[in-house]
Amino acid sequence: MRLQKRHVMKFESFTVPQPGCVTQVAEGIFWLRMPLPFALDHINLYLLEDEQGWYIVDCGLATSETRQHWQSVLSTLDKPVLGVIATHMHPDHIGLAGWLTEQHQVPLYMSQTEYFAARALFAGRAGASAWRDEQYFVRCGLATDAVTKAVGDGKGFSRIVSPLPVAYERLTEGQVLTINNNRWTVMIGRGHSPEHVCLYCQERHILVAGDHILPSITPNIGVYSTEPDGNPLADYLDTLLPFMELPSDTLVLPAHNQPFTGVRARVQALRGHHQQQLKTLYDVCRIPMRVTDCLPALFNRQLDSHLLHFAIAECLSHLNYLCAEGQLVRTLSEEGVYIYCQSPASETEQNDSVLSFDMVNG
């Protein structure tokens, strides 16, 4: 019998930086932390030093408070800013990318899908109606008043994101950025966002992970109204696997919580988490269920309007995965609400096979 290798994750004992301050985590690499007005109350940002200047990795929300903290940090730099690297298009990561690139007249580095998704979200509906957004929430089981509140005016993104630059430098899988004679290889993750950029320095065993791999929480893997029949969970599970090949002593610099080592252990834990969520939903759907009916089984806390949106998207991504695997069937009720139930063709042994991921030992 082959013994399974045990991987261990541990936090590194760096001093958590206060807003407007930095903590050095390795030679030429500095950690910043900016506040967020959510339950998840912070985002980690990073500075990479080059001989000629500095590269900023992620930016924080476009708020006056974050701008002030950035000005405090920038005033201490002894060299110019050379560029801004955005891991993905979520507002806490790209919020001040336009402001920073405009202030310093430097390029924005992003993957293609993330850049154009951000441009589209910033532009809003541009005169298009919101019927698909409304249909999405109705089909998930929300009441009429909750649907109206959830749809809103479509301008939420642009309120916390500064105007985006009209040009960018494209980052692609396997591309290498040379910064201070260190080679940073682009690794693309999908699922949390369409084409999330991570940066790995093989010579130094350092990974800038963004939101793709977080140490204490699981990244939101959601299905939203822009692609209601998408299967981002399959994308996420697939693009986690290459990170199992990284050395166990890799220093991971995440966008939330603290830097850590033990990337293999964390990938195994993330995959195990989603395996359990899939099993839970499959069991719950022994009887017909709406998306909103499934939420208490996955989330054991009170969901305010902000969290409800993400919870629905997360639940739907797992339901879509199970439907794609033939484990659940989806029907549309007379009221226009999706109903999920176990597939008559799915048997216990078949279910166990589908829901047991091939956990890579590395």
UniProtKB/TrEMBL annotation:
Keyword NADP attached: no
Molecular function GO terms recorded: hydrolase activity
Protein name in UniProt: Zn-dependent hydrolase
PANTHER family: ENDORIBONUCLEASE LACTB2 (PTHR23131), METALLO-BETA-LACTAMASE SUPERFAMILY POTEIN (PTHR23131:SF4)
Domain Metallo-beta-lactamase, first and last residues per copy: 42-256
Organism: Alteromonas halophila
InterPro entries: B_lactamase-like_C (IPR048933), Metallo-B-lactamas (IPR001279), RibonucZ/Hydroxyglut_hydro (IPR036866), Sec-metab_biosynth-thioest (IPR050662), WH-like_DNA-bd_sf (IPR036388)
One Pfam family hit: B_lactamase-like_C
Keywords in alphabetical order: Hydrolase
